[in-house]
Design goal:
With 398 residues, the chain is of the alpha+beta class. The chain is built from four helices and 23 strands. Helix 2 packs antiparallel against helix 3.
Protein backbone atom coordinates (compact mmCIF):
# COMPACT_ATOMS: atom_id res chain seq x y z
CA UNK A 1 0.00 0.00 0.00
CA UNK A 2 2.83 2.34 0.87
CA UNK A 3 4.57 1.64 -2.45
CA UNK A 4 1.40 2.44 -4.34
CA UNK A 5 1.15 5.82 -2.65
CA UNK A 6 4.77 6.59 -3.53
CA UNK A 7 4.30 5.62 -7.17
CA UNK A 8 1.06 7.68 -7.32
CA UNK A 9 2.81 10.75 -5.97
CA UNK A 10 5.63 10.36 -8.47
CA UNK A 11 3.12 10.04 -11.29
CA UNK A 12 1.36 13.25 -10.22
CA UNK A 13 4.67 15.09 -10.05
CA UNK A 14 5.56 13.85 -13.53
CA UNK A 15 2.23 14.97 -14.97
CA UNK A 16 2.57 18.40 -13.28
CA UNK A 17 6.10 18.78 -14.63
CA UNK A 18 5.02 17.88 -18.13
CA UNK A 19 2.05 20.29 -17.90
CA UNK A 20 4.30 23.09 -16.69
CA UNK A 21 6.87 22.35 -19.42
CA UNK A 22 4.33 22.42 -22.23
CA UNK A 23 2.13 25.23 -20.85
CA UNK A 24 2.22 28.20 -23.38
CA UNK A 25 4.30 31.13 -22.14
CA UNK A 26 3.25 34.78 -22.68
CA UNK A 27 4.51 36.15 -26.03
CA UNK A 28 7.33 38.65 -25.98
CA UNK A 29 6.49 42.07 -27.39
CA UNK A 30 8.47 45.19 -28.14
CA UNK A 31 7.07 48.42 -26.79
CA UNK A 32 7.57 52.15 -27.36
CA UNK A 33 6.20 55.26 -25.68
CA UNK A 34 3.84 57.95 -26.88
CA UNK A 35 5.91 61.13 -27.20
CA UNK A 36 5.30 64.81 -27.69
CA UNK A 37 7.33 66.91 -30.11
CA UNK A 38 7.59 68.39 -33.58
CA UNK A 39 5.73 66.41 -36.23
CA UNK A 40 6.87 66.82 -39.81
CA UNK A 41 5.33 65.38 -42.95
CA UNK A 42 7.54 65.92 -45.96
CA UNK A 43 7.86 65.13 -49.65
CA UNK A 44 11.45 64.16 -50.42
CA UNK A 45 12.89 63.95 -53.93
CA UNK A 46 16.18 64.48 -55.72
CA UNK A 47 16.71 68.10 -56.76
CA UNK A 48 19.42 70.27 -58.22
CA UNK A 49 20.59 73.85 -58.13
CA UNK A 50 20.43 76.30 -61.00
CA UNK A 51 21.25 79.92 -61.61
CA UNK A 52 18.14 81.98 -61.02
CA UNK A 53 18.59 84.35 -63.96
CA UNK A 54 20.56 83.01 -66.92
CA UNK A 55 20.90 84.70 -70.27
CA UNK A 56 21.76 83.14 -73.63
CA UNK A 57 23.75 85.64 -75.69
CA UNK A 58 22.85 85.11 -79.35
CA UNK A 59 24.19 86.29 -82.67
CA UNK A 60 22.35 89.43 -83.69
CA UNK A 61 23.12 89.05 -87.42
CA UNK A 62 24.24 86.32 -89.77
CA UNK A 63 27.95 86.36 -90.53
CA UNK A 64 31.36 84.96 -89.76
CA UNK A 65 31.93 84.52 -86.01
CA UNK A 66 35.45 85.09 -84.73
CA UNK A 67 36.71 82.63 -82.12
CA UNK A 68 35.34 83.42 -78.66
CA UNK A 69 38.21 83.92 -76.23
CA UNK A 70 36.08 83.64 -73.07
CA UNK A 71 35.92 80.39 -71.09
CA UNK A 72 33.59 79.11 -68.38
CA UNK A 73 33.99 81.06 -65.16
CA UNK A 74 35.27 84.28 -66.74
CA UNK A 75 33.69 87.45 -65.40
CA UNK A 76 31.98 89.83 -67.80
CA UNK A 77 30.63 93.33 -67.25
CA UNK A 78 27.34 94.61 -68.56
CA UNK A 79 27.82 95.86 -72.11
CA UNK A 80 31.24 94.19 -72.45
CA UNK A 81 32.10 92.70 -75.85
CA UNK A 82 31.90 88.90 -75.82
CA UNK A 83 31.98 88.09 -79.54
CA UNK A 84 32.56 89.66 -82.95
CA UNK A 85 30.75 88.87 -86.20
CA UNK A 86 32.14 90.02 -89.55
CA UNK A 87 30.41 89.98 -92.96
CA UNK A 88 30.29 86.72 -94.84
CA UNK A 89 33.04 86.15 -97.44
CA UNK A 90 31.67 86.07 -101.02
CA UNK A 91 32.03 82.95 -103.11
CA UNK A 92 35.29 82.53 -105.05
CA UNK A 93 35.26 83.06 -108.83
CA UNK A 94 36.48 80.28 -111.10
CA UNK A 95 38.40 80.95 -114.37
CA UNK A 96 35.24 81.09 -116.46
CA UNK A 97 33.53 83.52 -114.08
CA UNK A 98 36.64 85.69 -113.99
CA UNK A 99 36.73 85.81 -117.82
CA UNK A 100 33.05 86.74 -117.92
CA UNK A 101 33.62 89.47 -115.36
CA UNK A 102 36.61 90.80 -117.31
CA UNK A 103 34.41 91.00 -120.42
CA UNK A 104 31.79 92.93 -118.44
CA UNK A 105 34.49 95.34 -117.30
CA UNK A 106 35.56 95.88 -120.93
CA UNK A 107 31.99 96.56 -121.95
CA UNK A 108 31.58 98.99 -119.07
CA UNK A 109 34.82 100.80 -120.00
CA UNK A 110 33.56 101.10 -123.59
CA UNK A 111 30.32 102.52 -122.24
CA UNK A 112 32.28 105.14 -120.29
CA UNK A 113 34.24 106.10 -123.42
CA UNK A 114 31.02 106.35 -125.42
CA UNK A 115 29.47 108.54 -122.75
CA UNK A 116 32.53 110.79 -122.75
CA UNK A 117 32.27 111.14 -126.53
CA UNK A 118 28.59 112.01 -126.24
CA UNK A 119 29.43 114.71 -123.70
CA UNK A 120 32.10 116.14 -125.97
CA UNK A 121 29.72 116.17 -128.96
CA UNK A 122 26.98 117.80 -126.91
CA UNK A 123 29.47 120.45 -125.71
CA UNK A 124 30.45 121.32 -129.29
CA UNK A 125 26.83 121.52 -130.41
CA UNK A 126 26.03 123.77 -127.45
CA UNK A 127 28.98 126.05 -128.20
CA UNK A 128 27.81 126.35 -131.80
CA UNK A 129 24.27 127.10 -130.66
CA UNK A 130 25.55 129.79 -128.30
CA UNK A 131 27.50 131.48 -131.14
CA UNK A 132 24.40 131.40 -133.35
CA UNK A 133 22.42 132.95 -130.54
CA UNK A 134 24.85 135.87 -130.19
CA UNK A 135 24.81 136.61 -133.93
CA UNK A 136 21.04 136.29 -134.09
CA UNK A 137 20.58 138.68 -131.17
CA UNK A 138 22.66 141.35 -133.00
CA UNK A 139 20.57 140.94 -136.17
CA UNK A 140 17.34 141.26 -134.17
CA UNK A 141 18.56 144.52 -132.64
CA UNK A 142 19.44 145.86 -136.12
CA UNK A 143 16.05 144.85 -137.48
CA UNK A 144 17.32 142.37 -140.06
CA UNK A 145 15.69 139.39 -138.30
CA UNK A 146 12.23 139.16 -136.80
CA UNK A 147 11.68 138.70 -133.08
CA UNK A 148 9.97 135.29 -133.67
CA UNK A 149 13.05 133.98 -135.43
CA UNK A 150 15.19 135.19 -132.48
CA UNK A 151 13.00 133.21 -130.04
CA UNK A 152 13.50 130.07 -132.11
CA UNK A 153 17.27 130.43 -131.86
CA UNK A 154 17.10 130.92 -128.05
CA UNK A 155 14.94 127.79 -127.60
CA UNK A 156 17.39 125.80 -129.70
CA UNK A 157 20.22 126.92 -127.39
CA UNK A 158 18.26 125.77 -124.30
CA UNK A 159 17.64 122.39 -125.96
CA UNK A 160 21.36 121.96 -126.62
CA UNK A 161 22.09 122.79 -122.94
CA UNK A 162 19.63 120.07 -121.79
CA UNK A 163 21.20 117.57 -124.17
CA UNK A 164 24.64 118.25 -122.67
CA UNK A 165 23.32 117.74 -119.13
CA UNK A 166 21.75 114.41 -120.19
CA UNK A 167 25.06 113.31 -121.73
CA UNK A 168 26.91 114.20 -118.53
CA UNK A 169 24.44 112.16 -116.42
CA UNK A 170 24.88 109.22 -118.77
CA UNK A 171 28.66 109.55 -118.35
CA UNK A 172 28.29 109.43 -114.54
CA UNK A 173 26.06 106.35 -114.77
CA UNK A 174 28.59 104.63 -117.03
CA UNK A 175 31.38 105.27 -114.52
CA UNK A 176 29.33 103.74 -111.66
CA UNK A 177 28.52 100.72 -113.84
CA UNK A 178 32.26 100.27 -114.49
CA UNK A 179 32.98 100.48 -110.73
CA UNK A 180 30.29 97.88 -110.05
CA UNK A 181 31.82 95.38 -112.50
CA UNK A 182 35.25 95.78 -110.89
CA UNK A 183 34.06 95.00 -107.32
CA UNK A 184 33.93 91.15 -107.64
CA UNK A 185 37.61 91.10 -108.68
CA UNK A 186 38.88 93.15 -105.74
CA UNK A 187 41.00 91.44 -103.01
CA UNK A 188 38.96 90.16 -100.00
CA UNK A 189 39.23 92.06 -96.73
CA UNK A 190 37.44 92.76 -93.45
CA UNK A 191 38.34 96.42 -93.05
CA UNK A 192 36.56 99.46 -94.35
CA UNK A 193 37.95 102.38 -96.38
CA UNK A 194 39.26 104.07 -93.20
CA UNK A 195 41.00 100.92 -91.97
CA UNK A 196 38.45 100.29 -89.17
CA UNK A 197 37.22 96.78 -88.42
CA UNK A 198 34.01 95.90 -90.24
CA UNK A 199 31.30 93.81 -88.53
CA UNK A 200 29.10 93.66 -85.43
CA UNK A 201 30.24 93.39 -81.81
CA UNK A 202 28.01 91.23 -79.56
CA UNK A 203 27.82 92.46 -75.94
CA UNK A 204 26.72 90.94 -72.65
CA UNK A 205 23.26 92.06 -71.43
CA UNK A 206 24.17 91.68 -67.73
CA UNK A 207 27.14 91.54 -65.40
CA UNK A 208 28.05 88.04 -64.25
CA UNK A 209 30.12 85.05 -65.22
CA UNK A 210 30.25 82.81 -68.27
CA UNK A 211 28.32 79.66 -67.41
CA UNK A 212 28.74 77.86 -70.72
CA UNK A 213 30.29 78.60 -74.12
CA UNK A 214 27.94 77.27 -76.78
CA UNK A 215 29.99 78.26 -79.86
CA UNK A 216 33.69 78.31 -79.04
CA UNK A 217 35.29 78.08 -82.50
CA UNK A 218 34.97 80.55 -85.34
CA UNK A 219 32.62 79.82 -88.19
CA UNK A 220 29.53 80.93 -90.04
CA UNK A 221 26.51 81.52 -87.79
CA UNK A 222 22.92 82.46 -88.46
CA UNK A 223 21.06 85.25 -86.71
CA UNK A 224 19.74 83.97 -83.38
CA UNK A 225 22.41 81.29 -82.89
CA UNK A 226 23.27 80.91 -79.18
CA UNK A 227 26.89 81.82 -78.47
CA UNK A 228 27.24 81.57 -74.68
CA UNK A 229 25.31 81.61 -71.40
CA UNK A 230 25.87 84.35 -68.83
CA UNK A 231 24.56 84.57 -65.26
CA UNK A 232 25.40 85.20 -61.62
CA UNK A 233 26.42 81.87 -60.01
CA UNK A 234 25.98 83.38 -56.54
CA UNK A 235 22.22 83.78 -57.15
CA UNK A 236 21.19 80.12 -56.96
CA UNK A 237 17.85 78.42 -56.53
CA UNK A 238 16.86 74.77 -56.18
CA UNK A 239 14.41 72.97 -58.45
CA UNK A 240 12.77 69.64 -57.67
CA UNK A 241 10.07 67.75 -59.55
CA UNK A 242 7.40 66.05 -57.42
CA UNK A 243 4.21 64.16 -58.14
CA UNK A 244 1.23 66.35 -58.97
CA UNK A 245 -0.89 64.84 -56.18
CA UNK A 246 1.79 65.90 -53.69
CA UNK A 247 2.34 69.27 -55.35
CA UNK A 248 -1.29 70.15 -54.67
CA UNK A 249 -0.32 70.45 -50.98
CA UNK A 250 2.63 72.76 -51.63
CA UNK A 251 2.12 76.53 -51.55
CA UNK A 252 4.57 79.47 -51.76
CA UNK A 253 6.36 79.92 -48.45
CA UNK A 254 6.36 76.21 -47.54
CA UNK A 255 9.59 75.45 -45.60
CA UNK A 256 12.17 73.24 -47.30
CA UNK A 257 15.25 71.35 -46.09
CA UNK A 258 18.19 70.69 -48.44
CA UNK A 259 20.26 67.64 -47.49
CA UNK A 260 23.28 65.78 -48.91
CA UNK A 261 24.38 68.83 -50.82
CA UNK A 262 28.08 68.13 -50.29
CA UNK A 263 28.67 70.22 -47.20
CA UNK A 264 28.04 70.00 -43.48
CA UNK A 265 24.61 70.54 -42.01
CA UNK A 266 21.21 71.07 -43.57
CA UNK A 267 20.41 74.09 -45.71
CA UNK A 268 17.10 75.84 -45.18
CA UNK A 269 14.86 77.20 -47.90
CA UNK A 270 11.30 77.98 -48.82
CA UNK A 271 9.11 77.43 -51.85
CA UNK A 272 8.96 80.45 -54.14
CA UNK A 273 6.43 79.06 -56.59
CA UNK A 274 5.09 75.89 -58.15
CA UNK A 275 5.13 75.84 -61.93
CA UNK A 276 1.58 75.86 -63.33
CA UNK A 277 2.15 73.15 -65.95
CA UNK A 278 3.05 69.51 -65.28
CA UNK A 279 4.96 67.09 -67.48
CA UNK A 280 5.18 63.33 -67.96
CA UNK A 281 8.24 61.50 -66.63
CA UNK A 282 9.02 57.79 -66.77
CA UNK A 283 10.20 56.42 -63.41
CA UNK A 284 13.01 53.92 -62.90
CA UNK A 285 10.37 51.17 -62.87
CA UNK A 286 9.06 52.26 -66.27
CA UNK A 287 5.88 53.87 -64.92
CA UNK A 288 4.66 57.12 -66.45
CA UNK A 289 4.17 59.79 -63.78
CA UNK A 290 2.78 63.31 -63.90
CA UNK A 291 5.23 65.64 -62.20
CA UNK A 292 5.64 69.37 -61.71
CA UNK A 293 8.66 71.53 -60.87
CA UNK A 294 8.83 73.28 -57.49
CA UNK A 295 11.21 76.25 -57.28
CA UNK A 296 12.95 76.80 -53.93
CA UNK A 297 14.82 79.84 -52.61
CA UNK A 298 17.82 79.02 -50.40
CA UNK A 299 17.42 81.10 -47.23
CA UNK A 300 20.61 79.93 -45.48
CA UNK A 301 23.33 82.62 -45.79
CA UNK A 302 25.35 82.25 -48.98
CA UNK A 303 28.62 82.02 -47.06
CA UNK A 304 27.54 78.58 -45.82
CA UNK A 305 27.02 77.08 -49.29
CA UNK A 306 29.75 78.94 -51.17
CA UNK A 307 30.90 75.67 -52.79
CA UNK A 308 27.59 75.10 -54.59
CA UNK A 309 27.35 75.77 -58.30
CA UNK A 310 24.94 75.50 -61.19
CA UNK A 311 23.45 72.00 -61.63
CA UNK A 312 24.64 70.51 -58.29
CA UNK A 313 22.57 67.58 -56.94
CA UNK A 314 20.94 67.50 -53.49
CA UNK A 315 18.06 65.89 -51.59
CA UNK A 316 15.08 68.20 -51.15
CA UNK A 317 12.54 67.77 -48.31
CA UNK A 318 9.42 69.89 -48.78
CA UNK A 319 7.71 70.13 -45.38
CA UNK A 320 4.06 70.06 -46.40
CA UNK A 321 2.87 69.80 -42.77
CA UNK A 322 4.58 70.87 -39.54
CA UNK A 323 2.94 70.62 -36.11
CA UNK A 324 4.77 71.70 -32.98
CA UNK A 325 4.04 70.00 -29.64
CA UNK A 326 2.15 67.10 -31.23
CA UNK A 327 1.37 63.74 -29.61
CA UNK A 328 3.07 61.07 -31.71
CA UNK A 329 3.03 57.31 -31.81
CA UNK A 330 5.30 55.09 -33.94
CA UNK A 331 3.60 54.08 -37.18
CA UNK A 332 4.82 50.52 -36.54
CA UNK A 333 2.34 50.34 -33.65
CA UNK A 334 -0.70 51.07 -35.82
CA UNK A 335 -2.86 48.53 -37.59
CA UNK A 336 -6.20 48.92 -39.37
CA UNK A 337 -9.52 48.32 -37.66
CA UNK A 338 -12.11 48.83 -40.34
CA UNK A 339 -11.84 52.44 -41.46
CA UNK A 340 -9.92 53.47 -38.36
CA UNK A 341 -6.62 52.53 -36.74
CA UNK A 342 -5.87 50.64 -33.57
CA UNK A 343 -2.98 50.10 -31.16
CA UNK A 344 -2.26 47.71 -28.29
CA UNK A 345 -1.61 49.61 -25.06
CA UNK A 346 0.43 47.91 -22.35
CA UNK A 347 -1.52 47.61 -19.09
CA UNK A 348 0.72 45.91 -16.55
CA UNK A 349 1.54 42.54 -18.05
CA UNK A 350 -1.52 42.60 -20.34
CA UNK A 351 -2.38 44.50 -23.54
CA UNK A 352 -5.56 46.49 -24.22
CA UNK A 353 -6.89 47.33 -27.67
CA UNK A 354 -7.50 51.06 -28.29
CA UNK A 355 -8.96 52.75 -31.34
CA UNK A 356 -7.28 56.03 -32.27
CA UNK A 357 -7.77 58.80 -34.81
CA UNK A 358 -4.67 59.41 -36.91
CA UNK A 359 -4.53 63.00 -38.11
CA UNK A 360 -1.41 62.54 -40.26
CA UNK A 361 1.61 60.28 -40.56
CA UNK A 362 5.13 60.31 -41.93
CA UNK A 363 7.69 57.56 -42.38
CA UNK A 364 8.26 56.99 -38.67
CA UNK A 365 5.51 58.59 -36.56
CA UNK A 366 1.81 59.30 -36.66
CA UNK A 367 0.13 62.35 -35.19
CA UNK A 368 -2.62 61.23 -32.80
CA UNK A 369 -4.22 64.36 -31.34
CA UNK A 370 -6.28 62.49 -28.72
CA UNK A 371 -6.95 59.10 -27.19
CA UNK A 372 -3.45 58.26 -25.95
CA UNK A 373 -1.91 60.03 -22.92
CA UNK A 374 1.72 61.08 -22.98
CA UNK A 375 4.26 58.31 -22.13
CA UNK A 376 1.69 55.57 -22.77
CA UNK A 377 3.53 52.41 -23.79
CA UNK A 378 2.28 50.76 -26.96
CA UNK A 379 3.23 47.54 -28.71
CA UNK A 380 5.19 48.01 -31.92
CA UNK A 381 5.13 45.43 -34.69
CA UNK A 382 2.27 43.50 -33.00
CA UNK A 383 1.73 39.89 -34.01
CA UNK A 384 -1.47 39.21 -35.92
CA UNK A 385 -2.38 36.58 -33.29
CA UNK A 386 -2.23 39.08 -30.42
CA UNK A 387 -5.63 39.59 -28.84
CA UNK A 388 -7.17 42.19 -26.53
CA UNK A 389 -6.40 41.34 -22.90
CA UNK A 390 -3.63 38.89 -23.71
CA UNK A 391 -0.82 38.47 -21.23
CA UNK A 392 2.58 39.51 -22.63
CA UNK A 393 6.19 39.84 -21.69
CA UNK A 394 8.09 42.92 -22.78
CA UNK A 395 11.56 42.94 -24.24
CA UNK A 396 13.94 45.57 -25.32
CA UNK A 397 14.23 46.35 -29.01
CA UNK A 398 16.80 44.08 -30.61
Amino acid sequence: MKNKLIFGALALLLVAGLAWAFWPSPPEVEVASVTRGRFERAVQEDGKTRVRERYIVSATVAGHLSRIQLVQGDSVARGAAVASISPLTPALLDARSQAEQAARIGAAEAGVAQAQASVAAASVVLAQSQQDGLRNAALVRQGFVSAAQGDTVRLAEQLRTTELQAAQQAQTAARFALEQTRVPLRPLGTTGPTGSRMGVVVTSPVAGKVLKVLQQSEGVVLAGTGLLEVGDPAALEAVVDILTEEAAQVVPGTPVQLLNWGGAGVLQGQVRYVEPAAFTKVSALGVEEQRVNVIVDITTPAATWRGLGDGFKMDVRVLVQVVDDALMVPVSALFPIGSRSGVFVLDGDHVRLREVVVQARNGTHAWVPEGLPLDTRVVVYPDIKLQDGAKVKTRRPG
